[in-house]
Structures are given as structure tokens and as C-alpha cells.
Amino acid sequence: FGGLAKSYSKNGGIAKGVGRFFEPIILYIRDDIAIATIGEKKYKKYMPFLLTIFFFIWFLNMFGLTPFGVNVTGNIAITTALAVLTFLITNLTGTSTYWKHLFDPLGDSMPWIAKIPLYIILVPIEVLGIFIKPFSLLIRLYANMQAGHIVIMSLIGLMFLFKNWIGSSLSFGLTFAISLIEILVALLQAYIFTMLSALYFGFASEEHEHAEAH
């Protein structure tokens, strides 16, 4: 990424080398995730986190599939830390419209007297949703990566149970197929975490006019 930044400054905004591989991914995150969910006015301040979280999760997921890798994203402490970062950024950058929607979800659609019975149910649900969103992030990433590694290790273990070339060959074939799927899952989980984080940032940064249009 340092080389990509240098190539931009030296070649008039044209990427060179390995940067050509990463450039379309960065542009996709900017155009189809950040701008699409947050908006053109406020997406820039969230871009450093979105890019970092995407490549951080993707690289760790891929590293965990190598013989020397450790299943870092299969550790719930790591996924919890990532989800907490999203939680903090979402709520610390939330606009007045965001907080008003949490504690006054019905707005001015009806008198306060009529809204009180509904708010006894709606407001706790909205507040609970603040914590459910990051919890779903950490569980989704943890469960998917941990489950994939458990399946692979189980299939490898079958080779020692069968103790013959037919069973071992079948186990090896299944392990190879699951490993290929895990490569796709590694990228997909990074995309999902980044997309949902951007979606939460978009909800938190919306203004009054945008909220009404939504």
C-alpha cells in the first residue's frame, strides 16, 4: 500500500506494480460500499477504517489457511475487538438525527400521549439494537471462520481413521474442495463485515432531510 501511494505521486495518479491489483478493490470499497451506504458528503472520514478493516480481515483469513497460519479471526476475542471498534465509531460519530431516531422513532407522526404506550416497547428495542448490531458482526465472522477450520480438520482426521488409500483419498479430495471454498469465504466475510460497518455508519451519519427521504 505504501508502494501504491508512492506510485500515485510519482506517475500522476497511475498505479504501478502490485498496486494495480489493489487499486480496483480500493475503488470498489469507496464507490460501491462507502459512497453507496454513507453518502458522498461524509464517506471520506470513514474510508480509513473501512479499508483497514477489509484488508485486515481478508489477509488474516487467507493467512489462516496456510500451513503456517493461525486462525486469528476464529478467535472470538479478535472479532469482539473489531466489532467494538465499529460500535464506538458508529455511536461516537452519530448525528442528532441518529439519536433522535433511537429515542423518538415515530417522530411527529402522532401526539406524545398516543406514542407513550408504543415507546415503552419501541425504545428498549431500538436501544437493544445498538448492541445487537456489533454482536452479530463478531459472531458472524467468528462462527464462519471457526466452522470452516473445524470442518477441514475433521476431514483431515478421517485419514487417520480410515487408514486406507480409498478413504484417505476421499478425505483429501473433500479437504481440498472445502479449502477452495474457504478461500472464497475469506474474501466474503471481509466484504460482509465492511459492508455492514459502512451501513451502520450510514445510519449514524444521516441528516434530518436524508432520514425523511429514506
Care to describe what's here?
79% of the residues lie in helices and 0% in strands. The chain is mainly α and 214 residues long. The chain has one domain (48-213). Helix 1 crosses helix 2 (19-38), helix 2 (19-38) crosses helix 7 (165-205) and helix 3 packs antiparallel against helix 7 (165-205). The chain is flat. The two termini are 36 Å apart.
In short:
The chain is mostly helical. The chain contains 8 helices and no strands.
Unreliable segments (pLDDT under 50, ≥5 consecutive)? none
Strand proportion, as a percent range, falls in: under 5%
Give the helix level as a range of percent.
over 70%
Written as H for each helix and E for each strand, in order along the chain, the element string is HHHHHHHH
